[in-house]
Amino acid sequence: MSDRGAREELDPFTPGNVMTQLIKYFAVSLGMFVLFAGVSVGASQAAQLRVATFRCDATPPIGGHPLIWLTSAKTIEDPLWAKGIVLDDGQSRYVLCAMDWCGLCDSTYDLFCRKLAEAVGTDVTKVAVQTVHQHTAPYTSSGAQKLMDKYGNAPKFVDFKFLDELTDRLAAAAKQSLAELKPFDSVGIGQAKVDRVAATRRVKGPDGKILVRYSSCKDPALRAMPEGRIDPFLKTVTLAQGNKPLVRLHYYATHPQTFYGDARVSADFVGHARDRLEKEEGVFQIYFNGCGGDVTVGKYNDGSREAREPLAQRLLAGMKASVAATKYEPVSKLVWHSVPLKLDPRTDGSFALGPTEALVSDRDANPSRRTVAACRLAFDQRADRPFNITCLDIGDARLLNLPGESLIEFQLFAQQLLPKKFVAVAAYGDLSPGYICPAAAFAEGGYEPTDSNTGTTSEQKLKAAIREVLGAP
Question: Which of 22, 34, 215, 397 could form a disulfide linkage to 296, CB 3.0–4.6 angstroms apart?
């Protein structure tokens, strides 16, 4: 290039470049018009945020699909609900659903998410289904049942016909709700301390060793020990149109069980508190269980029927206080984030592949032990398929959805990452990993590491995924 050519390229007002610059000017102007028009259209679409609520009775029939492990239902104290919302921002749809079951694992979890996604016309990565984790409710792994069926003489762990019918009914409820999508323009956030409900299960004794305070604890000395490390706050997120609340989402971290594995179907004290508030307020209420893997009500529950009602009353009081503390802000957009997470199966001791496969294939093995082993093997066989970590950003609220029985460490970690935001955590998505523990817990001992299908690498991997999906620095 000559010096003259170089100077003309640098000087926009040389005669040879005037027309070129005019063309560039109008092109940029047109581009800016299109850009601002696009923002305007986007803002207009964002202003049309809509929400629909849906529910489906998920109660298994008496003598039918078993409750946790292999227990057959004999009485139904109250129904088990699957309750959710569909969010529509004019461009896509998103589903949050909480279900009164103990757990959905591997392909069972995928079945629920896939049918909900198809029903509302969205991608499966934009659907989060969490269980509330009551222990008088089903814990289901289709993969485990298929593994045992392969070898014959399998215990009845999954009723596939019931699962298909239930997921069809749930999908139909979600689809029908689309006809009732309502606009909302504000989001409310509130929180309150809950009095005498949650306490750690990992109690440290005088010698520093971990003592286990189960959900039902009859030992007065163990019940007298401090509450320990928990998140004492119940958080509430409300979607509203003007001053009219349309739906409230509640988040609290504890094992929601006063009874365990018997034949009576119940949503337990958390379901009772949720349903009472819905009846009192006339507002749709959904309850999500946080990272309560190592949190129970054992300090305040001796296993008696009389102990359950005070727990329900105190949780309800916490919900009401959280609602009363709610402050609203205008909202015109939402953002959905999704991050894949792979977790490593354990290979130590009884978790080694050889002993696990041998137990699953043993037709004469104890049915419960065989079923547990089949759940572990099903998790091992899905190791290359990532879990979906999701987060909904709406106003100052961050609604984080996690898999497994994540310990309270991960909820507190997420909140510490964004101290100026309102971070509400729902765990108990795909429950196939079992407990997700901090690495230190495996050295400390206690109950949770004995029932974790994933090992010491899970802490680093899950925390990295949480950081990424929250967009934390």
Answer: 215
